[in-house]
Write a structure and sequence with these properties.
The chain is of the alpha+beta class. The chain is 59% helix and 15% strand. A hairpin with a 2-residue loop joins strand 7 and strand 8 (164-169).
Amino acid sequence: MSFSGKIKEELAEHSTDARHCNLAELSAIVQMCGHFSEDFKGRITLQVDTENYPVARKCFTLMRKTFNIKTDIVIRRHAGKDNWSYHLFWRGEELLAVKNADVQAVCCKRAYIRGAFLAAGSMSDPTKSYHLEIVCAQEERAEYLKTLMNSFGTDAKIVQRKRMHVVYLKEGSQIVDMLNVMEAHVALLELENVRILKEMRNAVNRKVNCETANINKTVSAAVRQMEDIAYIRDTIGFDELPDGLKDVALTRLAYPDAALKELGSLLREPVGKSGVNHRLRKLSEIANKLRENKEEQHYD
């Protein structure tokens, strides 16, 4: 089952005895995948169409708890496919309470967002990316939903996708907050586990990359040092060098892979890392001057 499917299964099982919250959740579902009309007798009729079984089950449960009215259900199997569509019908003037639900209290805002996600929401696989969205057919509904979501401290945004308006979150921490708002606590814990593992993996990768860069830098410096020392040896030799520089040059040639600290301990008169570094810089300067003199002589 997809991560979205797990969230919806959990939300479908969520239950409350507060009638106002049930109305708010019903209102969101109806706005996302339902519509009101009148039958031939002029009675108010509500129809909800969905291909998501948890949505159908939740609508049935909420209607029974809130209004205790009969639900007519038509189930169709799509030709040549292994999926179904669910069409639920209710009649009665009391249904107008769903249409005019008051979503003011914090608990009702939670319920409305829960219903909206259940009916028209989805979330990407968190092991790959963080993206939670709810698709709305009308811009004003998207704006309303965005306002409700952002009242909980998130930064939901809207993007138009063809004729639809999509309210979305892309920050992992904000998606965690929204799952908490919807009271999808099992999905929240699973997402947090994924986030922790990804952050640990990223931290390890950063450390490895940093260490690799340092190793490459050290190796490159050692190669340059060997080239400079070999150039001095092949041009003027080491006898013209001061004893300290000569000692470092010979030791570096003998131990090309040694770190500066180790190199310093191998000298006749051991010195620290900074002392070795200073002498190697001096050798580099000498090699560069020899190269410059050679180029000048060549042009002369």
